[in-house]
Amino acid sequence: MTDPLLDPQFFKDPYATFTRLRSAAPVHKVPTGSKGRYSYVVTGYAEAREAFADPRLSKDTARFFTGQPSRRNLHPAVSQTMLATDPPRHTRLRAAAGPAFTPGAVARMRPYITEVVGALLDVWAPGEQVDLVAGLAVPLPVTVICQLLGVPGDDRTMVARWSNGLFAAGESDRIDAASHALADYMADLVEAKRREMDDSLLSHLLVRSAAGELTGDEVVSLAVLLLVAGHETTTNFIGNAVLALVQHPDSLARLRDDPGLIPTVLDELLRFDSPIGVATFRYSTEALVIGGTEIPADVPVLIAPGAANRDPAQFPVPDQLDLTRNAKSQLAFGHGIHRCLGAPLARAEGEIVLTGLLTRFPEIELAVPSENLKWRQTRLMRGLDSLPVLL
Questions:
Q1: Where are the alpha helices (DSSP H) in 38-102?
Q2: Closest-CA residue to 279 (of 72, 51, 78)
Q3: Mapping DSSP to helix (H, G, I), strand (E, B) and coil, where does residue 129 land?
Q4: CATH number, domain at 345?
Q5: Are 59 and 327 in contact (CB under 8 A)?
């Protein structure tokens, strides 16, 4: 048996695989990586929510891989981010970055986000065919998170390219090279901010470092994580949401006629096509049981929000986009102490994009057959390489 999460068809449409696995059991043992290795994949909603909050599932990847031979050459600033830590270190790191992503902080950023969205839409005209991913879904979140961190404008395209390279499934050399390029760049930028402080998030992290709350390496690692997590997920969210709407004309018309509904339907759009298919690495620190499946100690456990959000036990008729559905319990941003720190920012960007897009171009349509769309080749992210639309 091969890893079902690395099948080419899985990247194109993971939901058939998720349904097959979940229908048999909410937790599955599957082969992964080298011969003889395996992990457990959690596909049921209740089981995923339980697993997200279970302290016996550690995110300390450095501890898990200690003593194991590795051919990888990931930069430590990428391989040992806050995502790969447990409390109390995780608690300390999250507290340092958290104030920048509170609802109040995000509210203060909304005018800037609106300005960026307007500028991106200004270059489009009715009747044009455009790539919504390249022209809107990628540049908006990159611009916003780079502005927040203090990344110079001329560097943002290059930084986004390195970030994208981190998710090149099956291309370990490309991933490793991108990790070093991005980490080295961010280390240089941190040093530049240290010499000339400003009002950027990087400078605020350096203040915490000077107070002894963060090490220098932790500032660089946090900067890398916030940059990558701050735009990759949102890029996928925007692309997936627009695709879902153009594939469901009645839903599109509903929002076009009443844009005030957009904030209330973001959870359903996130549920329907989650920007995270399979959450980042966890492993069992002791034997446990989830969903009736016995999981031994010291094995990887992969939680799949994309599967959990289509669990009919939680969301009736889950393969149907239903803008009247109460989907607040969706798990696209995870759950528990590792829930996505930037969720408020992602929601604000999604809301402002959809409002601007449907106001400017109310008759937007998909420009190619759905089966011709190309998806990113990574099991972690669920996102489009491109989205050709007719304005």
A1: 45-53, 61-65, 76-79, 89-97
A2: 51
A3: strand
A4: 1.10.630.10
A5: no
Contact 12, 279 (CB under 8 A): no
67: left (phi over 0), alpha (psi -120 to 50) or beta: left
Token digits for 170? 């099956």
Per-residue model confidence as pLDDT tens digits over 45-75: 999 999 999 999 999 988 887 766 555 788 8
Tokens at 229, concatenated: 């997590």
389, 245 contact by CB (below 8 A): no
> What percentage of the chain reaches a pLDDT higher than 70?
97
Q: What span, in angstroms and rounded, lies between the C-alpha atoms of 378 and 5? A: 9
Nearest-angstrom CA–CA distance, 319 and 322:
9
Q: Which two tokens stand for residue 221?
A: 């690692």
Domain extent, residue 189, equals 4-390
The pLDDT tens digits of the residues spanning 305-332 come to: 999 999 999 999 999 999 999 999 999 9
Q: Specify burial of residue 318 (Cβ count, 10 A radius: 0-12, 13-18, 19+).
A: buried
Number of domains in the chain: 1
- Can you read off the two tokens belonging to residue 321? 């986009």
Q: Cα angle at 223 between 109 and 279, to 5 degrees?
A: 90
User: What are the Cα distances from residue 276, in Å, to 103, 156, 226?
Assistant: 22, 23, 16
Structure-token pair, residue 150: 């203090």
Q: What does the block give as tokens for 94?
A: 């999250």
Sheet arrangement for strand 388-390? 129-131, 388-390, 365-366
Supply the mean pLDDT for the chain. Answer: 92
* Confidence band for 180, pLDDT divided at 50, 70 and 90: very high
User: Would you state the pLDDT for residue 181?
Assistant: 93
H helix or E strand, kind and range, residue 264: helix 262-272
Strands 282-284 and 300-303, sheet pairing: antiparallel
Nearest to 276 by CA among 9, 4, 48, 32: 48
Q: Pick from 107, 116, 350: which is nearest to 236 by CA?
A: 350
pTM, rounded to two decimals: 0.93
Is the separation of the CB atoms in 305 and 276 below 8 Å? yes
Other CB atoms within a 10 A radius of the CB of residue 275 amount to: 27
In this prediction, residue 270 carries a pLDDT of: 98
CB distance 163 to 177 below 8 Å: no
